[in-house]
Design a protein that fits this description.
This protein is mainly beta. It is built from 4 helices and 37 strands. The chain has a single domain, classed as Beta Barrel (Maltoporin, Chain A).
Length: 632
Amino acid sequence: MLKKNLSKSALVVALLTTTVIWRGTTAYAEDPNQAFTLDPMIVTAQRTETRDLDTPATTNIITEQNIKEAGYKNVFDAIEHQVGLTSTGYGDAGQDFGFSSGRTVIRGYDRGTLVMVDGIPMNLKNYNSLDGIPIDMVQQIEIIKGAAGTLYGSEAMGGVVNVITKRPGGKTQVKVKGTVGNYYKDYGVTYAGEKLIVTASKEYSNKLTHSNAYPEGSSTDWWVGKGQKNRAGISAALTDEIGFTFIYQDGNITRGSNNDAKKVGSVYKKYNYRYDDKRITTGLTYNGKYNGIKALVGYNYRRTEGYDFAAATPGPVSSSADLSSCIGDVQKTWNLGKNTLITGYSLRRENYENLVTKANKAHRTSNAIYLSYNNVFSDKFSATLGLRGEIIDDPVKSENILNPQFQTLYKINDTTSWYINIGKAFQMPTVDSYYGKKAAAGTLKPEEGWTYETGIKKIYDNKSIKLAVFHMDFENKIGWSDKDPGTGEQYAINKGDFRNTGIEAEFTHNVNDKWRYSLGIGYGNPEVKDPSTANPKWVQDDGRIDASASVFYSISKLTSGLTYKYLGDREYYGGHDVPSRSRLTWNTSYDLTKNDNITLTMNNLLDKDNYSNRYGNLDLPYNWKITYTRTF
């Protein structure tokens, strides 16, 4: 069945790709100065700017132009199309329902990816919901897979994602846009000037009568009501060295069941929820031009309130909470001849307060010192040693940890490099997991372990080849228990040891100024070993096969492209194998004038019942949207 699905999907992609290329003589060419470099500068992997070819880690870079041409709906949508990402949501493009949150998953390790905006951590409850980031503010997204805990600390178990927002500059302009579609609409305005960028938008989603694979993938036949979200963002250049970012979102959505889904005692219960969600991410950044100092002060906040209308006594759901985190980080880069030393200090405080049980509140404080020393032995070979010491003041059990990292880079020639990346990661249980019906304080152990990776990058002017082999070996992976037979509730537990050995390969070719394509495939074997059974055995914990493909053709005023993402050989859950996921998107953009653009996006062209997670939640069926943009 897997081979049949793969063959069918591959045939459709091949046919559609051929059609786009063959008809490309009527397409579009952007400004020739907007080249698609295959060796971009990366700031996240090493905490300093390095070329991709000189970075000893597996990386994926998504630019503003990539987002525009692919027609990605939001940041989550852009990230999950990359190889090595098996992200999970509760509907299309990372849909959230309160703290049933969409999240980015790197190499199969759920709740193990640290997501940042301009270096400000967004993770709360180990979740990294990306819904609040306005897509119009994004300049570049940097995905660093593998060991990252030494430079960025807790929650970077599988890797780190840094969403870099646009910075003011250039001539003043105003953009207004509006989108209509069969499931979705929005409208917004963006002002961009020499010192300030301001964006505001409003989004609406339509009702879904059936949003789950019922009864095959879920015991609940869910409906989702109309949703609405308000977003705003500010990016300001206070000086040449100091920047300010502010991102805000509030929204609401309803969700319920068409059937009597859950048996509590002798009674079957229906669901009927409303979720109100408010988010703020803001911070100041300093980037010294001449002194080698970078610093930031950031704040991340989320308030989610759920209301249960179907309860015997209607009222707020128990998970309703206020969450926030504050961070301060300062680093200094020392240039020691050919060698480089980065030293830094980081302070983070996480806060939790339950909105129903007010006594359930706590905070955690982390103080860390880190360093990264790069020694250039020759023009061809260099090595980097990293070390992070962290003191974690926890409400239950404090920890003192030490995370080392070792990297090497060998330049085979001017276009080819070989790297090794080995590092340790550590992650505490979420602060709120100490409260609950079953999870007693002190029963959860921190997650920790090592990632070993080696890879080769070959980057020419117009093509690149990347190959990486990795092994992840972690202890005490935190997950969810089985449902309690009396209440139907789940709670956090240590599922057991986790391991994943895999390989990823990517090829990108900018054929000429008219068309380009990329192909990527990954294979891993993410497994968890449950220690609670009499004879523990390794059990598959996420999908094994991961593939992506894209092709774009552009000429004159038109750009047309296809993007494809496939997840296959997924895990066994709830008494069945989670079906493969196959998503094909076609995006076409046409410049009516130099100031007017119209874009047509068609998602899920194969109209597949794609599971967005293991619980049976579905992506949208085939859907379309048309966006008109006017620039003044």
